[in-house]
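Readers of this paper often ask what the protein records in our data store actually look like. Below, we set out a record of this kind in full and without editing:
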Amino acid sequence: MDRRSFMMLAGGALLAPKPAFAAAAVDKPVTLTIIRTASDSDVKLMNSVMERFKKKFPSVEVKPQFITSNPWGEYINQLMNLVGSGQTPDIITMPTEGVSTLGSRKLLRNLDDFLNFDPGAKELLADVEANLLTGLSYQGAVNLFPTEWNTVAVYYNTKMFEAAGLDKPSADWDWATFLETAKKLTKTDASGRTTQYGYVVSGKNFSLMPWFLTNGTDRLTPDGTRSNVKDPRFKETLVFLRSLIAEHKVSPTFARNNAGESALISENAAMITTTHSSVPAMISGKADFIDVQVFPKNRTNVSIFGAGGVGVSTASKEPELAWELVKELTGKEFEDELAKNMRATPARRSSATSSPYSDFPPNAKIFYEAAATAKPLIAPPNFAQVEDIMMRHVDAYLTGNVEIDPMIDQLDEELSRAMSRVRW
C-alpha cells in the first residue's frame, strides 16, 4: 500500500456508506482464540490485553496459544500445522516473514472492511507510518495491522570509540569507513590472540540482509519470485563479510543465530548489527555505554524492516469480536506498554517517539525515522524454506567450509527449485 492509498483510507475511514460488518454485540458466552509468540514479554503484554478486553466484553473468553519459536520460519510452520489440523485461531499474530504464506492461502480477512466502518480507525491510521503496512500487505490488501516492527542498526560501544580516538559514526558512513573503523577497534595481545573484536558478523538472517540491500542486491528478485544470487553484487557482499572474518580478522568465527549481543554487552566486541529486540538485554546488563547508528552504505543507503501484526482469520466465526481484539492489540495502551519493555519498535509513532522508548540508546530516534523509507523483507510463501536454504549455504561459506563460486551455484540451484514450486 502506497502513502496516497493509505491516506485515502485514513481520510475515508468514517465515510464508508455500506460497512461490511456490524459493530460487535455480545449477548452470549464466546471464546476467541489467538496465536502469539511465547516470549516472557509477549505473555505479559497478552495478559494485560485480556484484562482490558474482559472489562469491555465480560462474556468473551480469550484463549491465547503461545508458540516457542526461533527463527520465524519455525513459528510459521507451527501455525500451518494448526491450520492443517482444523485449529485455525480467530486472531493470527504474524510477522512480515509469513504474510505471503497466509495471503496465498486466503487465511486472513481483508481489514479494509473493518477500517472503513470503525470510528476508531481514523485515529489508529493517523498514528502509524503508512510504509509499515506494506510489509504486512498481500497483493495490495491489508490483512494484518502492525503492532510493532524492527529494523537493523549498528550498535556500538562509545567507550571503545573514544579510547581508539574515533568520532562517533556518522549517518553517511560507508563500507570502507566501517572496515577501517573495525580495524582500529580490534585489539590483540602479545601472543596475537584477539582480545577485542571490532565487529561481530551477525549469524541471523534478518540482521544479515542490510549488507545485501546496501549493496543494491538481495537473495531474491524484487518481486520475490526467483533466485537472485547470481547477481555479482550478491557475491561481492558475501566476499566482503568473509573478509571481515578471515582476512582482516575484525570479527570472530561466524555463528548461526548469534548476532553478538553478549560480546557487545561484555565489552568483547565494539560493534554489532542487530534489531531493537537486543535492547532489553543491554539495559539489564547495564550497558549504558552503547549507542546506535544507521547501517553503512556501499552502493545505496537503505534500511530494512520487518513488521509484526495481527489479523482476523477467515475461519473465525466471530469476525466482529475478533476485530475488537485486534483494536485492543493495536491500541495506545498496548503500544505504550510495548514501548516500556523495549523488545521492538512500536507501530504507533506517538509511543515510539516518546519516553521511555526514546531514552535509550541515545540516538534512538533513528528507529522510527527509518519507517518512512525502509524496505520490507522479501518474504515469499515458502519463506521458511528460503531462510533455511539461504542460511545453510551462507553458513558454510562464512565458516570457510566451501568456496564462494561453488556455494553460489548450489545456492542458486536450490533456491530456483524451491521458488518454482511456490503456490502463489
In short: The CA atoms of residues 35 and 65 lie 5 Å apart.
